[in-house]
Amino acid sequence: MPVVGFISEKGGVGKTTACYHMAIALSRYHKKKVLVIDADYQRGGVTGRFFPNLIEAFRDGTLPDETLFTKYQQLYSASSVSPSITVRKYTPDNVDVIIADKRLASVTTDKLPSTNNLRENNLSILSHLKVISDIITDNNLVYDYILIDSHPEISDVLRSIIYVSDYCVSPVKLDLQSAIGVPTIVSEITSVNDDVQLMKSTIAPQLVFTPTAFAGAIGMMAREWGGTPKQSEREELRRLRSAGTVFKNYVTEGDGLRRAAQERLPVFNITGANADKQSMQLKKLTVELLAKCP
């Protein structure tokens, strides 16, 4: 059951668009049972795409669901963390969703109860890191794929996402400002892997942990000329390859995805030449994801 984290240091790069459409594509075209976890506490974009009727409740902070935030809050209150969490079903496709909660913005290890015992403090930090992982395990959430959308910043929530993920991908807009964030993301993955290995060797020898792999950057909103990326985009692709793995396929900019977002539908449901092109690109990306994140 691969868990794939969609992470980026910068917003507005197509991260949520990629996560949402690949979840739909995995279900619709590859018959996979998919869970999407929306941990983007600023926009809740995936939540809004699957369940438009929840947008206002997300903004007002009046969602009725038991969310990821509830689990962190239980840790901070020094109470036992209950395994229960609300999983919603997106009926048009075989996709389940754990919706976003804007209160995740307040999540930080600084809120953990502190003691004079260094080992207990470190175990508490490890419990914080494992929150999402424990939710999946304790609820026996078994899927063909679990995709996690994240907020675009380095945070303790992002570290929990990296911990639970078997693979992380980083959607990026093919410009210098967006692409330079990829090495930061790769560095944070390495940092989490190293920290967990240190905890395993010192305070938690029973811990089972496989280091998270960076599966690659995904080019989004690319501009083309004659069916290939423009010169500036080609330069950014070369720069990304020097930092690590890059998906061969990419998604071009255009009104297909914009219209799909406005109508709260996947681009696969939208007609028109540009929508057809972007649909095909996202289908190819999904096939590549299946190969890179088996």
How would you concisely characterize the structure shown here?
The protein is an alpha/beta fold. The chain is built from twelve helices and ten strands.
Strand order of the largest sheet: 3-4-2-5-1-6-7-10
Instruction: Determine the mean pLDDT.
Output: 91
The proportion of residues in beta strands is 15-25%
| Radius of gyration, in angstroms, nearest whole number | 19 Å
Q: Which of globular, elongated, flat, extended, rod-shaped describes the shape?
A: globular
- Summarize the biggest pleated sheet: 8 strands, mixed
**Total number of beta strands:** 10
Number of helices: 12
The class by helix and strand makeup works out as alpha/beta
CATH topology: Rossmann fold
SSE pattern: EHEHHHEEHHEHEHHEEEHEHH
Poorly predicted segments: none
How would you summarize the topology of this molecule?
Blueprint (H helix, E strand, L loop, with lengths): L2 E4 L8 H16 L3 E6 L5 H6 L4 H6 L7 H9 L11 E3 L4 E4 L19 H12 L1 H8 L6 E6 L5 H9 L2 E7 L2 H4 L2 H21 L10 E10 L1 E2 L2 E2 L1 H13 L2 E7 L2 H8 L10 H20 L2
Helix pairs in contact: 1-12, 11-12
Notable characteristics:
294 residues, 10 strands, two-stranded antiparallel ribbon, Rossmann fold, 12 helices, 8-stranded mixed beta sheet, globular
